[in-house]
Amino acid sequence: MQFFPNVKFYKSFLNVNQIQEGKIPPIPAVAIVGRSNSGKSSLINALCNQKKLALTSATPGKTRTINYFYVPSNKSHYKEFFLVDLPGYGFAQLSKAENEQLHYVIDQYIANAPFLKMILLIMDSRRKLEKEEYSILNYCLDHDKDILLIRSKWDKLKQTERDQLLKEWKNEPILFERTIPVSSLKKIHIDVLVKRIIESINQ
Ligand SMILES: Nc1nc2c(ncn2[C@@H]2O[C@H](COP(=O)(O)OP(=O)(O)OP(=O)(O)O)[C@@H](O)[C@H]2O)c(=O)[nH]1
Ligand SMILES: [Mg+2]
What we know:
This protein has 203 residues and is an alpha/beta fold. The chain has a single domain (8-202), classed as 3-Layer(aba) Sandwich (Rossmann fold). Helices cover 33% and strands 21% of the residues. The protein has a seven-stranded mixed sheet, sandwiched between helices. β5 (116-124), α3 (131-142) and β6 form a beta-alpha-beta unit. The protein is globular. 36% of the residues are buried.
């Protein structure tokens, strides 16, 4: 599979309390979480091979709600599931209180979302993991949640820079086995990620 066909917008929610069991279909969710402007919405579009399914922008803070997208089953390959676009954290123009509120929404989502099967933690390939990423990563590892570390905007790097980063990442085996460098723009490794998501959904 190269991408997920026929994906449709399902619903937006302000927080996890609005996403109650019984009110949404009991099917797995795969959520994309990461810093503002890291490429979450672009990744949804690349995974679904659509241009404007999830709204993207060069201005950070575009996605402000928890957006659910419905992925219909592909009978022989995978069951139906939701792809979830979360608001980004760490957006400098927000006040401290607003950023704390965003972290609260995201943390509550990760801890309490019904049927949450997998988390895709996305970050710009050129950035180092910071306390926010370690906190999400450690939470998922401690709570036995399936997590992948998606390194975005891989197209922006020269081959020598890619080689250097891959060498660095290999020094952290637990992270490296979960790491997938991708480009939503140039469709690099989107098929690899599709495969990993299907494996998780079918488990
Ligand atoms: N070169 C390149 N640019 C990308 C890629 N993915 C995203 N971008 C750009 O990065 C910017 C932010 O992308 P979004 O997908 O809106 O990021 P987001 O994480 O959803 O941002 P928020 O909703 O604000 O949290 C846009 O200008 C995208 O075009 C990529 O793979 N390569
Ligand atoms: Mg977004």
